[in-house]
Amino acid sequence: MNNLKKIQACLFVVICCWACSSNTVKQDNNDPDAKLHTVTVLPDNDTPLDSVVKKIEYVKLKPTGNMLIGDISKIIVTDNHIIIVDTRQSQAVFVFDRQGNSLAVISRLGRGPEEYIGLTDAAVTPNQKEIVVLDNGRSQILYYDLSGKFIKKQTIPLTANRIEFIDNETMLFTTYGISNNPDIPAIMCLHYVDTDMNVVKSAFPTQQYPKLGHVESPTMKKNGDRLYASPIYSDTIYRITSDGMTPYYWIDMSQVNGITNRDFSPDMTPEQYNQILQSGAFFNGSYAESDNFGLFRALYPKRGKLVMYSKTQDKSYNLDADRLSTMFHLFLLNLNDIYTYKDQFVVAVDAFQFMNKLPNEREIKLYEEIQQGLTVDDNPVLLFYTLKDPE
After folding, report:
1. Quick one: 43-387 is in which CATH superfamily?
2. d(Cα 211, Cα 199) in Å, to the nearest integer?
3. Partners of 105 in beta bridges
4. Strand 37-40, strand 244-252: pairing
5. Nearest alpha carbon to residue 60 among 371, 386, 362, 387
6. Cβ-contact 338, 288 below 8 angstroms
7. At 2, is the pLDDT very low, low, confident or very high (cuts 50, 70, 90)?
8. φ, ψ for residue 221 (rounded to 5)?
9. Is a pLDDT exceeding 80 seen at residue 343?
10. CB-hemisphere CA count at 13 Å for 125?
């Protein structure tokens, strides 16, 4: 499918899926940021991963008292702070300065007026001064300042699993398409909500597969003021703004027999599902985007394909990760655990992974710097990667 046809197809899908007014989808051909960027997945991985890493920096996260970081579910980096969200183990939000010094821990499990019964997700307000905790057990969001002081809470009109801010007036929530509110379409799982907790727009049909026993929810990624969302198994990532959404990345898998959500039937059996997944490459929403580059993973029978897209060159590089000269580059392979800040990709690495000696490590100086004074019980180390176009 050529690019023009692909743009038309994307717009048709968006218009059909969007439960709102006709001006929701915006395309401005004079705006370079509105361009549809094509990420091409090729059969061969022809660019060494080693060749696209320009620089690696690190921040050691200092002790946080009796509350240790257990399992990181989100990293938010701002100009002045690093915020770690742990929804699975500690059920807490950790606030650090940019040098890794602990400033506050928000740990408010309970049923009191300033507490949450479950930490589902967290986000930072656009002014970067407040942290908003999503508690889907009570269908509420709670506001805390960066010192951990409670500010206020609001009841939200849906049961959500993710939250992000689009701007000062609008939040974006994802759900599993389950709604007890007659004013919210249960067939949709991406919702714009204003500060008065009104749902003003909804999109993305619910992806329910009863015979598989699971329901999918869209992915959301944010870097600065850029917010993206994508349905699972789609080949398109949408840029989200207060005006609506625009197809921003198209994952072109035509050369690797690509499959998309159009190939998945709601009533398919586990056998049909596995057969589809073994027939070609598919994109499951695993990506990360910095100011200059995007990293995308297309899953392929027996292995995955990691693709880097250069915004400045408008070019895709299929990365070869089979022959790495340093262990540091291994951490770039799991895109679900990669976050971004401006032009950097951010990865958290458990302290114990730096305990062994690696005499053949190419980045031995960096490795020894990180290892200095580190113990197996310390909080994770954050690695900041700056990428480049290969020479």
Report:
1. TolB, C-terminal domain (2.120.10.30)
2. 31
3. 94
4. parallel
5. 371
6. yes
7. very low
8. -135, 145
9. yes
10. 15
Q: Which of 151, 152, 158, 232 is nearest to 192 (CA)?
A: 158
Which of 249, 211, 218 shows the shortest CA–CA distance to 233? 218
Domain boundaries, the chain: 43-387
Contact (Cβ atoms closer than 8 angstroms) between residue 121 and residue 135: no
Would you state the pLDDT for residue 95? 98
Please check the confidence at residue 168 and state whether its pLDDT lies above 70: yes
Neighbours of 101 (CB within 10 A): 14
Q: How distant, in Å, are the alpha carbons of 226, 344, 385 from that of 292?
A: 13, 9, 12
pLDDT digits (tens, 9 = 90+) for 34-51: 689 999 998 887 899 999
| Segments in 105-248 forming alpha helices (H) | none
- Residue 166 near residue 240 (C-beta atoms within 8 A): yes
Query: Is residue 221 a contact partner of residue 228, using CB atoms and an 8 Å limit?
Result: yes
How many other CB atoms are found less than 10 A from the CB of residue 365? 9
Would you say 24 and 11 are in contact if contact means Cβ atoms under 8 Å apart? no
State the Cα–Cα distance between residues 151 and 364, nearest whole angstrom: 46
Backbone angles phi, psi at 102, to 5 degrees: -70, 130
Q: What is the pLDDT of residues 224-241, one digit of tens each?
A: 999 999 998 899 999 999
Residue 6 to residues 36, 161, 225, 233, 250, Cα–Cα distance (Å) = 9, 30, 26, 16, 8
Record the tokens describing residue 372, joined without a space.
Answer: 């200095």
DSSP designation for 116: B
- Rounded Cα distance between 309 and 210, Å, is 36
Question: What is the side-by-side strand order in the sheet with 102-106?
Answer: 74-77, 81-86, 92-97, 102-106
Nearest partner of 298 among 342, 246, 240, 254, judged by Cα: 254
* pTM score, whole prediction: 0.89
Q: How many residues does the chain have?
A: 391
Provide the pairing of β-strand 344-349 with 381-387: antiparallel
Q: Please, what is the average pLDDT of the chain?
A: 87
pLDDT above 90: percentage of residues in the chain: 62
pLDDT of residue 359: 59
Measured distance CA(54)–CA(40) in Å, rounded:
22
Start-to-end CA distance of the chain, whole Å, equals: 30
- Taking the C-alpha atoms of residue 347 and residue 357, their distance in angstroms, rounded to an integer, is 21
